[in-house]
Amino acid sequence: MSVGAMGAFDRRLLLAVDARGYGSVDTARQRGIQTALPRLLSEAAEAAGLDRASWVRQAAGDSEFAVLPTGSDEQALVEPFMRRLDAGLRAHNRDRVPGARLALRAAVHFGPASEAPSGFAGPGPVEISRILESDPLRRALAAAPDAALAVALTAPVFTELVAQGYTNFRPEEFREVVVEKKEYRGRAWLWVPGYDVHALDLGNPEPGVGSGAGVGASAGAGAGHGPVPGSGGPAAQVAGPAAQTAPAPQAEPVRSGGDSVSTHLCGTVINGNVVFGISK
């Protein structure tokens, strides 16, 4: 087998989690988070039938980045793991005052990752990191005061598992958002257990496809590096309900004294998920 300078190409299942508000609590609370986090992750993995001992993990106190072995069960990580993690967090928080409760952001991705001197490198680890730290995911958890978990799935995970019916999730339980973080721009699908994620105030513009109901056009985005809503790419072919109800532009020719003809447009023009109102 021929390989390039970077070695053999490999796609891996990636998990990243981070605790909310770690930097704003005292030392005792930070110790509590560092103790509870690995225990809760291990319990969720065991309940989902995943061997956490085989994961390559990078822990940082209030967070963990994990690269699962080749061939790991994506379905198990997306659904039973996340449901069990939410249940474990709620049990952990049951007798605690609000300020002492543990809440996590989590992201799941399947993408290129290769071993490097300080862990893993490649587009996969970068993408999951940007999504984990993104504003939409942070705002989703902040907008759900009683939630203990907010989950983001990247395009390959959502479109190939959830949208295709390989889990018990309904696609409409997720909300598609645009993620812009540092040099990264892509999409993610958010789920907040116990909440209608579409009703949460995320304070940012929505993409053309508001939920999993029309994921066919978004699947071409791959790992999130494809065209973004409004860019004229595959996602721009689906403009949502507005495209079906908006009136077609009407042209009113205006002739001048010469041979030229100018046209004034009145109505609504839709390009992707961008709507322009045009008047005479």
Overall description:
It is globular and about 50 Å long. The protein has helices at 27-47, 74-78, 80-93, 123-132, 135-142, 155-162, 241-245, and strands spanning 11-19, 56-59, 63-67, 104-112, 114-116, 119-121, 149-153, 175-181, 184-191, 250-255, 261-271, 274-278. The chain has a 7-stranded mixed β-sheet. Strands 10-11-12 form a 3-stranded antiparallel β-sheet, with no helix packed on it. Mean pLDDT is 77; it is low at 209-280. The chain has 280 residues and is α+β, with helices and mostly antiparallel strands. The chain is built from 7 helices and 12 strands. The protein starts with 10 loop residues before the first strand and ends with a strand.
Summarize the structure.
By secondary structure, the protein is of the alpha+beta class. Helices cover 25% and strands 27% of the residues.
Throw out a few tags for this protein.
280 residues, alpha+beta, three-stranded antiparallel sheet, 7 helices, globular, disordered C terminus
Topology:
Layout: E1 11-19, H1 27-47, E2 56-59, E3 63-67, H2 74-78, H3 80-93, E4 104-112, E5 114-116, E6 119-121, H4 123-132, H5 135-142, E7 149-153, H6 155-162, E8 175-181, E9 184-191, H7 241-245, E10 250-255, E11 261-271, E12 274-278
Parallel strand pairs: 4-7
Antiparallel strand pairs: 1-3, 1-4, 2-3, 5-6, 7-9, 8-9, 10-11, 11-12
